């Protein structure tokens, strides 16, 4: 036990070796958490998925620097990951749940017109839309575009005519 205390330390007064040792363990714990959470949490990038990224980073850092006890931090992270996975399962199971948690796509451009009311709702300007069009449709010519949406994850996507 004394050997483990030397390597991982205790409390807030940790040296570089102890913080590094904790960092290595947290790295592997994070890998396990990502596998448990599923690909969604680091692939889709919806607001829900960003919550897990921010929460896990903030909580796990407390274990590395010794601000919180190590085991309770890991347990808390597993609870968050299981909650995220459960909510993801609910979203995938029903459209109504998905709409409630993640919202709906918003139509921003249609039939040659920018839809100002929807743009206000999405908090975007024409240049934001043009950036999304250039990125997703690989054109700046709006005459080639049928519709532009703000997707549930905040990306702007364009459908060509």
What is the molecular shape?
A: elongated
Terminal CA distance: 68 Å
Q: Strands of the biggest beta sheet: in what spatial order?
A: 2-1-3-4
Number of helices: 7
Strand content: 5-15%
One letter per element, helices H and strands E, the order comes to HHHHHEEHHEE
- Number of E strands: 4
Query: What Rg is obtained from the alpha carbons, in whole angstroms?
Result: 22 Å
Main sheet? 4 strands, antiparallel
For the residues shown, what is the average pLDDT? 87
SS content category: alpha+beta
* Poorly predicted spans: none
* Helicity level: 55-70%
Question: What's this, in brief?
Answer:
61% of the residues lie in helices and 11% in strands. The chain is an alpha+beta fold and 161 residues long.
Please describe what this structure looks like.
The structure is a single chain. The chain is an alpha+beta fold and 161 residues long. It has helices at residues 2-8, 16-37, 47-65, 70-93, 95-102, 116-122, 126-137, and strands at 106-110, 113-114, 145-150, 156-160. Strand 3 and strand 4 form a beta hairpin. Helix 3 (47-65) runs antiparallel to helix 4 and helix 4 packs across helix 5 (95-102). The model has no long low-confidence stretch (mean pLDDT 87).
């Amino acid at each position: 036990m004394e050997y483990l205390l030397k390597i991982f330390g205790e409390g807030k007064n940790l040296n570089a070796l102890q913080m590094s040792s904790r960092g290595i363990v947290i790295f592997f714990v994070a890998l396990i958490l990502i596998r448990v959470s599923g690909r969604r949490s680091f692939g889709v990038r919806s607001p829900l998925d960003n919550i897990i990224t921010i929460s896990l980073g903030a909580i796990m850092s407390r274990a590395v620097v010794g601000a919180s006890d190590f085991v309770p931090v890991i347990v808390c992270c597993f609870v968050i990951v299981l909650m995220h996975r459960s909510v993801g399962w609910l979203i995938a199971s029903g459209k109504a749940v998905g709409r409630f948690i993640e919202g709906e796509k918003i139509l921003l451009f249609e039939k040659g017109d920018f839809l100002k009311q929807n743009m206000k709702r999405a908090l975007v300007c024409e240049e934001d839309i043009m950036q999304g069009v250039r990125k997703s449709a690989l054109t700046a010519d709006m005459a080639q575009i049928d519709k532009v949406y703000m997707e549930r994850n905040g990306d702007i996507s364009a459908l060509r005519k």
